[in-house]
Amino acid sequence: MNLKYQNKGNVIYQVEDYEFRYSGKKIAKIELMIFLDEPSYAFTYKLVNEDLPSKIKESSSNDNLLLQKLGLDVYKYADFKSKEAALQGAIDLISLIDKKREELVDVSNFV
Fold first, then answer.
1. What is the helix (H) or strand (E) element at residue 75, kind and residue range?
2. Closest CA to 82 of 40, 46, 28
3. Contact 62, 79 (CB under 8 A)
4. CA dist., res. 111 & res. 108, Å (int)
5. N or C: which end of the chain has fewer CB within 10 A?
6. pTM: predicted TM-score of the whole model, two decimal places
7. Residues 6+ apart with CB under 8 A from 18
């Protein structure tokens, strides 16, 4: 698509909603963003775990600080070229957060 926008930074994208179950329990809602002008994908998520700080509980695939703190490659998460890759990234990130939940509950470990 070649859409025309009034302002730099304007973008239109499609959204698909998913829910993720981990070890049999619902732990997150995932919003997959599909950018129409170029074939790229990103995601946001919201964890249902009330114990986690809000910085971790709700975030996105372009939260470089969170990705670095978790030891993940920020470039891998910056621009997904397929829906499958973006959803796999969401699964990997949310699973890692759940595994590290106890150390992440303490906000001082995250600053």
1. helix 74-78
2. 40
3. no
4. 5
5. N
6. 0.86
7. 29, 30, 31, 32, 87, 90
- The first and second tokens of residue 101, run together, are 């939940």
Q: How far is the C-alpha of 27 from the C-alpha of 23, rounded, in Å?
A: 9
Backbone phi, then psi, for 92, in 5-degree steps?
-60, -45
Give phi and psi for 88, each to the nearest 5. -65, -40
Question: Using CA of residue 81, residue 86, residue 88, residue 92, what is the dihedral sign?
Answer: positive
Q: How far is residue 34's CA from residue 98's CA, in Å, rounded to a whole number? A: 26
Q: How many CB atoms lie within 10 A of CB 42?
A: 20
Q: Is 93 left (phi over 0), alpha (psi -120 to 50) or beta?
A: alpha
Q: pLDDT class for 31, splitting at 50, 70, 90?
A: very high
**Three-state SS for 37?**
coil
